[in-house]
Amino acid sequence: MNSRTKKFLSYYKPYLGLLCVDLACAFVVSAITLMLPLCIRYITINVLEGNSPHPLSQIYTVGAVMLAMVIIHTLCDMFISYKGHMMGAYMESDMRRELFDHFQKLSFSFYDENKTGQLMTRTTNDILSLTELYHHGPEDIVISILKFLGAFIILMYIDVKLTLIVFLFLPFMAVFAFYFNKKMNIALRVSKDRIGDINEQVEDSLSGIRVVKSFTNELVEKKKFAYANGRFVDSRREGYKSETYFHEGLVGFTQLITIAVIVFGGAAIVDAKLALADLLTFFLCIGILIEPIQRLVNFARLYQEGITGFDRFMEILEVEPDIEDSVDAAEITQVRGRVTFQDVSFKYKEDYGYVLNHVSLDIEAGEYVALVGPSGVGKTTLCSLIPRFYEVNEGRILLDGRDIRDITQRSLRKHIGMVQQDVFLFAGSVSDNIRYGSMEAGMDEIIEAAKKANAHDFIMALPDGYHTDIGQRGVKLSGGQKQRLSIARVFLKNPPILIFDEATSSLDNESERAVQDSLERLSDNRTTLVIAHRLSTVRNAQRIVVLSQNGIEEVGTHEELIARKGVYASLSHMQLTI
Ligand code: ADP
Ligand code: MG
User: Fold this and answer.
1) Candidate CATH numbers 3.30.200.20, 1.10.1660.10, 1.10.10.10, 1.20.1560.10; the one for domain 1-158
2) pLDDT tens digit sequence for 129-178
3) In what order do the strands lie in the sheet with 394-399?
4) Where are the domains of the chain?
5) Protein residues whose CB sits closer than 6 Å to any atom of ligand 1
6) Which atom of ligand 1 sits closest to the CA of residue 502?
7) CA-proximal residue: ligand 1, atom 21 (nearest)
8) Are 560 and 532 in contact (CB under 8 A)?
9) How many angstroms does the Cα of residue 94 sit away from the middle of ligand 1?
10) CATH class of 339-577
C-alpha cells in the first residue's frame, strides 16, 4: 500500500465503530432484499397454488415475517443514510481543518505562487467530493457484491437456461453504462470548471465595479459575463444529453431483459418446464441483479471524483513550509531592538536574479532610520527579511547580536510591528480589528491605542463607535482612517521594532499629517525603519539609507547627504517622490 492510500484510509480511524455498523447495516439490507422474493415464492407455491392445509394462517405468518424484515430493512437503510453521511461529513471536516492548519504553516513563497481563489476551491469543493466517496464507497461495494451474487444464485437455482439468457445482456449493459457514465463525468467536470469561470468573472467585475463604472465599461463586463454564462450552458447541455442516454439506456436494457424472460420463460411454462411461481420470483430477482451495475457505475464516478479531490488535497498537504524553526531555536522575551544585516544577499527563487546583493547595515536599538531609493530596488524585500518572511541566501541578519534563524519565528514576529501601504482589515467591527494586535486586550486598552493613533475621534463619529462594522476589507472607511486603525493595532501590540513601508504614500496631505503624527508617536523609543517617498517623512530620520540596484549607495543624515551631492541630493531635489 503506498503512502497516499494509507493516508486516505487513515481518516476512517476515528470512526471505525461507525464504519462497522454501517457495513453491517449494508449487509442486512442486501440480505433482506434477497429474502423478500423468496418469501413471495414460498407463499405462491405453498398457499396460492392450493398446496397448504391452513392457507390463511400461513399467509399471516409469512406476512408478519415480511413486515418484520421490511421494518429492519428501513431502520438499517435509515442508519446508512443518516449516520453514514454524517461519518463522511466528520471525515471531511477533519480533512478541511487539517488543510486550513497547514495553510497557516506555509511560507510566503507558497502564497506568491498560488491564487487565493484556487486555494479556496481546494478547501471546499475538492474535499466535498470526498464525503460521498468515504461514505458510499465501502457500503456500495458490500451491497453490490452481495446483491449480485445472491440474485445470481437464486436465478441459477430456479432456472439455468433463463439465467444464461439474462447474462447475455449484462456485458452489453455494463459497457453501455460505463461509456455514458464516463461522458457524463467529463461533462460534469467541464461544467464545474465553467461555473468556476463564472464565479471568477463575477468576483472580478464586482470587486472592480468602481473601475468598471468610471471607465463606463459595463458593456464589456456584460459581454465577458455572457460568454462565460453561455459556455456554462453548453457544458450543461452535454451533461444532460449523456445523462439522458445513460438513464434511458439502462431502462431500455432492463425492459429488453424482461421481454426476453417473458418470452423464454412463458415458453418454458407452456412446455411445463417451469412453474409460474418460479417465473414470478425470476422477475423479482432481475431488478436485484441489475441494481448493482448501476450502483457500481455510480461508485466509479464517486471514486474518480473523490480520488482527484484527494490528490489535489494531498498536493497541498505535502508542501513543506520553506522556513521552519530549527530544533534549538530560542524563545526571546527581552528585545532591545538592534537589527544588523551582515553581508546579506537574497533572491526570491533559485532561477531569479538577486534582489539584494551583499547588503550590510547596522541599526541601533531605538534608532530611526529611513530607507529611500527608486521603485523596485528591494526596499520592501529588505524589510520582509527582518521578520523572516523569506530566508536570506547568503549572510545573516542579527537581532540584538543573535542570528534570527536561532529564534522561533513566533517570538521574533511578536517583537516586530509592521505598517504597510496596503492596509488589510478583517471583516468585523472597529474594535475587533484593533484587538487583532493583542487578542487579550480589554476595551480600555483598545481605546487608549486608538487615541495614540489619532483614531479615537473619527471612531467616535462612526454610527456605532467602536462597534461599527467596517465592511469587507474596511470599504466603509477612508484610506487615512484604515491606516490609523492599522497603527492602533500596532500600538496595542507594542513591539520594540517597527517597520513602516510607505505607510503614508497613498494618502492625501491632510490624512498624511494625521497618520504621520501617530507614526511619530509610535516610533518613540523603538527601533524604526521607514520606507518613504516624501521628503517631509525622511528628513527627520537619524540616518538615511539610500538603496540602489547596486546595493546601499549612501548612508548619512539629511544634511550630510545633501552636502555630498550624490543620489540622495538629486532625489531630494525632486522631492523624493519616485
Ligand atoms: P521596492 O519596495 O524597493 O519597490 P521590492 O522589494 O518590492 O521593491 O521588489 C524588489 C524586486 O523584487 C522587484 O524587482 C520585484 O519585482 C521583485 N519581487 C518583489 N516581490 C517578489 C515576490 N514575491 N516574488 C518574486 N519577485 C518579487
Ligand atoms: Mg516596496
Assistant:
1) 1.20.1560.10
2) 888 889 888 989 999 999 999 999 999 999 999 999 999 998 999 899 88
3) 356-363, 339-346, 394-399, 402-403
4) 1-158, 160-273, 339-577
5) 112, 348, 355, 375-381
6) 2
7) 348
8) no
9) 37
10) alpha beta
